[in-house]
Amino acid sequence: MATTVRATAVVIIALAAFGCTPARNYEGSGPRYAWEAPPAPDPVPGLRIVTFNIRYARDIVGALAAIRADENLRGADVIALQEMDASGVDAIARGLGLSYVYYPGAIHPTGGKDFGNAVLVRGRIERDGKVFLPHLSRGRAMQRIAVWADVNVDGTRFRMYSLHLSADAEMSRPKRLEQLRALIAEADPHDRVVVAGDFNDRAAVGALFESAGYEWVSRDLPPTVAHLFTWDHIFARGLRLVALDRRGVADNRGSSDHRPMWADLAPASIVPRRPPTPSR
Fold first, then answer.
1. pTM more than 0.85
2. Domain of 96: which CATH number?
3. Exposure class string for 172-209: b at 16+ Cβ within 10 A, else e
């Protein structure tokens, strides 16, 4: 009993030191929110992936307007959203005519509401779930998760992940990379995988995914946060970027502290390759 009391006291003192209220984590497989959209024609040929962190889901109307206003966003086939609640996901998905699955990882103490990730799809979601990532964040002791969906977009099937990792103030880089190694191991059995979201890091996570056989689709794109940092990324395995000019960072129109990112992918076997350089 004394040990338990002492451990509890240490946690309380640590939280007080950081000035943070602890998060309320969801420990089970739920809650789960989903909706299946009626079939609709694809306005843009190919497979377009978008990722967008909408800060605490505060400006859903503005975020939806930003997506609709940009020709590179409104034709998305798959959208990974972060910092979302259920009503925000539902509003964006229905506004765009996309199916979705959403899982919160916790109730965030800042906003006092659910905080999680979603996958929106112009197509079918065949299976879905969430991955609990190792290590709770420093201060808030928040559980981070990745939401996955096995999707079928015009006959192209792949495993899609939407995730959001802690910032440096709440988690060290080594622990953040351990979270990604756990995710990469979870995704290993699947031939085609896309991982997109807010990684709160750049070079280290890019190198880790490349060493695991992924293409760093978003490499060298402009900043996505405060015109300084590129924390949002897209990585793919079994799918390839179609061309360097078929990706970019879009305007958030003031709806978030992050800017949305997009990229056009295709199955690796049909992506045009440069002819080999003649040997001398």
1. yes
2. 3.60.10.10
3. eeebbbebbebbbebbeeeebbbbbbbbbbbeebbebb
Confirm if 231 and 198 have CB atoms less than 8 A apart. yes
Residue 141 placed within a domain: yes
Within a domain: residue 4? no
Domain count, the chain: 1
- pLDDT by position in tens, the chain (length 280): 444 334 333 334 344 444 568 999 999 999 999 999 998 888 888 999 999 999 999 999 999 999 999 999 999 999 999 999 999 999 999 999 999 999 999 999 988 899 999 999 999 999 999 999 999 999 999 999 999 999 999 999 999 999 999 999 999 999 999 999 999 999 999 999 999 999 999 999 999 999 999 999 999 999 999 889 999 999 999 999 999 999 999 999 999 999 999 999 999 986 544 444 344 3
